[in-house]
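Design request, tokens follow.
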């Protein structure tokens, strides 16, 4: 397999596809979603079919993902990862698709190597066809530019449109004789350019140039059978008018002409586009030009003596009928804008990336008319509210010092889908994040049963709504505060932020307080976390929506604060409360308790199914209160728990199910994803060996919460032992476990697997080291032996421990910028 990896990029190519850096993964999905059919996600499926099986029904299900606002490519890459594809294998497949835009992040620069030189000497007759070919390799992929000189010694002239590896000149003239060579480059460094050897082309005059009457002197009354004396070569059709290169605006009509003469009028015209027969008339009429009509055209004229091929005519997009044709030789467009379909109310961003040795300017056009103010490589249409914004978009890239010299991008066709009336088209957050905290193991309070399962239920719900979820169990006061501070690093403008707390709590002076696990006996407000302090921090980040779910009791605390009333802070939504973006759902009303059944809290039981509904958040909470009230009535219970909603939301139709749109926020989205992902990196599966007994043990890892790690150990090779069982021990005191390793149910005949759960990972300040132990019987012995490996296993800093929340020396993170800067 080829060696990959750009300098400074620590991508590990034997890792899973899903370990691609977030920005590369996102760009790859966009590329595969929007590319033409020969380089899109379906083409990748076809390439990988021999080694990775994708069921046909899955492909068809994924094909509807774009219309639903998701990515079929993301689903494909996830499935390929599940089947074991590595990044290195993916790179090999992308190279076959020649997806240079993505490969530039994943491959080293490869200098130009010329594999095949053009012919050194050619002798042609005037009117013949000249074909020169050069083959070269390198990465980025080679670009070609042909040059010509009359005698091979003077300055060479750049041939304007000859930028392919094959140079073809039909019906060559004598004044086109001379020396030809090709310059090949793949980067801006002139030292990396390569020149081919010269091809000396000699063009000889025709011995008997055929006039219109094909060299015969036709006299009146001459028998037409005299034409039979003309040889077949001379009697083939002669094209007197070749089709010409043209540019067109989308949806206009255009024609291409090809005229020919011959010994009789019985001639057949066959028009071709990109090697496909498309018409059989002398005039090719194209009605209502679309993007598919752009390309290379030629005509082959046939009679009974043979056929003649016309010159190639190119049809290219034109932004405006009045734009002056320009010399585009020095401008290379690397990335063209892509056609796409967006939902009404959604956003779209077109990109055009070009290279040149001189400063460039940009102007975007829509249906041939310049778009005012659209003068950068990126062109964004946000929250589209006018269906007439659809159409053909193209970017003209020009030299700032000479605007007449320009190059046009490919046309991107924008289609606007009018959604079903049930869809919420008004709001599209650029991201959604959720912090879920469940406290159950208290030092000085009665332990709770529901927080762990409640957090799991809500985590699953919010993940299904595309939230980035951080779920934590059993936090102290400093840990809650540190978690909130780190959570705020994920929040910014146009972000939906959810904060959930399940545990003990109380109210005092109109404020609610969250009780941490380390609260002392007789705790007061200073020992707890004020809800308003959490809200203030989140509001200061200016998200589009704040949704707080507080599953706590709200009775007065057993011990009131000793502070004078005038020094106690008054109730407020937070410093940013006037912005009207906050909704708080309390499990119970002020002065009342909140209850749990053996498995879940009552709030979670009735609220979580409703959160997936595509309804405004206030409507969801109102529906929850109605269902909860019906539960109280059905069970003939006194209303000892009445949920309460507090809201100053000025946009009540905002829904947790609103679709994420990252256009204009791609860089910030990728940074946020990478920062969130940093707190969810598990140790890699590994093999641990105990040489003394030749035992090989597999360690695997899972996590349900961001600060809880499950470690599984099983014996792959029992070596010289019998009845060998592996387990984990010597857990450092910084973290904790509720119970020692226990057996995990496996299939009959499989090795015994043990599992241990490591809690409180947020407390780690150093790498996590554990020991692997084995219990076994030696052949011929009846007594078990226990051997503890002296080699420690380094699990590094797993999950939330990597953020070092409780390390006073940890790096202060820079808030994510909300807008892409380039």
């Amino acid at each position: 397999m080829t060696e990959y990896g750009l300098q400074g990029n620590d991508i590990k190519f034997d890792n899973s596809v899903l370990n691609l850096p977030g920005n590369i993964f996102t760009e790859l999905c966009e590329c595969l979603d929007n590319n033409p059919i020969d380089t899109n996600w379906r083409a990748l499926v076809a390439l990988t079919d021999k080694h990775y099986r994708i069921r046909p029904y899955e492909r068809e299900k994924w094909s509807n993902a774009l219309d639903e606002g998701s990515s079929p490519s993301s689903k494909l890459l996830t499935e390929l990862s599940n089947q074991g594809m590595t990044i290195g294998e993916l790179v090999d497949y992308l190279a076959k698709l020649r997806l240079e835009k993505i490969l530039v992040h994943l491959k080293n620069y490869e200098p130009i190597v010329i594999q095949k030189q053009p012919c050194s000497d050619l002798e042609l007759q005037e009117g013949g066809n000249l074909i020169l070919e050069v083959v070269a390799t390198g990465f980025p992929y080679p670009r070609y530019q042909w040059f010509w000189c009359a005698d091979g010694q003077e300055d060479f002239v750049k041939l304007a449109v000859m930028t392919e590896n094959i140079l073809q000149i039909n019906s060559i003239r004598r004044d086109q004789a001379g020396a030809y060579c090709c310059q090949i480059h793949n980067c801006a460094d002139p030292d990396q350019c390569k020149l081919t050897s010269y091809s000396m082309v000699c063009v000889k005059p025709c011995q008997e140039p055929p006039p219109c009457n094909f060299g015969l002197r036709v006299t009146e009354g001459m028998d037409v059978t005299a034409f039979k004396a003309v040889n077949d070569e001379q009697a083939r059709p002669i094209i007197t008018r070749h089709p010409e290169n043209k540019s067109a605006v989308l949806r206009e009509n255009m024609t291409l002409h090809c005229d020919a003469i011959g010994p009789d009028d019985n001639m057949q015209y066959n028009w071709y586009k990109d090697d496909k027969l498309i018409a059989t008339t002398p005039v090719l009429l194209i009605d209502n030009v679309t993007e598919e009509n752009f390309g290379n055209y030629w005509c082959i004229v046939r009679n009974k003596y043979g056929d003649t091929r016309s010159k190639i005519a190119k049809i290219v997009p034109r932004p405006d009928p009045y734009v002056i044709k320009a010399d585009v030789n020095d401008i290379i467009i690397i990335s063209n804008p892509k056609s796409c379909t967006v939902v009404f109310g959604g956003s779209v961003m077109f990109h055009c990336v070009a290279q040149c040795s001189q400063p460039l300017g940009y102007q975007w056009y829509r249906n041939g008319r310049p778009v005012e103010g659209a003068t950068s490589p990126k062109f964004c249409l946000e929250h589209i509210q006018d269906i007439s914004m659809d159409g053909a978009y193209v970017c003209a890239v020009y030299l700032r010092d000479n605007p007449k010299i320009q190059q046009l991008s490919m046309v991107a066709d924008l289609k606007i889908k009018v959604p079903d009336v049930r869809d919420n088209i008004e709001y599209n957050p650029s991201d959604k994040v959720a912090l879920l905290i469940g406290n159950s193991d208290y030092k000085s309070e009665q332990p709770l049963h529901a927080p762990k399962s409640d957090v799991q239920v809500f985590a699953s719900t919010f993940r299904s709504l595309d939230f980035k979820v951080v779920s934590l169990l059993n936090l102290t006061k400093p840990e809650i505060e540190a978690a909130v501070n780190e959570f705020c690093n994920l929040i910014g403008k146009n972000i939906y932020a959810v904060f959930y707390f399940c545990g003990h709590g109380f109210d005092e002076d109109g404020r609610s307080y969250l009780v941490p696990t380390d609260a002392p006996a007789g705790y007061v407000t200073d020992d707890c976390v004020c809800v308003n302090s959490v809200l203030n921090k989140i509001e200061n980040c200016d998200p589009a929506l704040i949704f707080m779910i507080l599953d706590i009791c709200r009775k007065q605390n057993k011990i009131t604060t000793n502070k004078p009333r005038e020094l106690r802070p008054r109730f407020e939504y937070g410093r940013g409360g006037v912005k009207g973006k906050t909704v708080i759902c309390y499990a119970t009303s002020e002065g009342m308790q909140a209850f749990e059944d053996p498995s879940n809290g009552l709030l979670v039981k009735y609220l979580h199914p409703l959160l997936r509904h595509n309804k405004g958040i206030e409507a969801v909470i109102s529906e929850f209160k109605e269902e909860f009230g019906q539960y109280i009535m059905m069970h003939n219970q006194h209303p000892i728990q009445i949920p309460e909603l507090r809201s100053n939301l000025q946009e009540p139709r905002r829904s947790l199910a609103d679709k994420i749109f990252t256009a204009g926020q791609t860089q910030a989205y990728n940074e946020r994803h990478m920062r969130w992902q940093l707190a969810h990196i598990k140790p890699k599966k590994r093999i641990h060996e105990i040489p003394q007994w030749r035992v090989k043990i597999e360690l695997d890892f899972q996590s349900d919460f961001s600060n809880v790690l499950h470690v599984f150990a099983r014996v792959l090779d029992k070596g010289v032992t019998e009845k060998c069982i592996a387990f984990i021990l010597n857990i450092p005191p910084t973290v904790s476990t509720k119970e020692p390793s226990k057996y995990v149910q496996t299939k009959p005949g499989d090795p015994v697997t043990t599992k241990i759960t490591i809690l409180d990972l947020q407390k780690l300040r150093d790498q996590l080291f554990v020991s692997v132990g084995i219990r076994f019987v030696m052949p011929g012995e009846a007594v078990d032996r226990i051997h503890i490996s002296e080699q420690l296993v380094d699990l590094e800093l797993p999950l939330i421990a990597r953020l070092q929340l409780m390390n006073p020396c940890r790096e202060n993170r820079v808030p994510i910028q909300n807008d892409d800067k380039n």
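Comment from the thread starter after seeing the answer: thanks! The radius of gyration is 36 Å.
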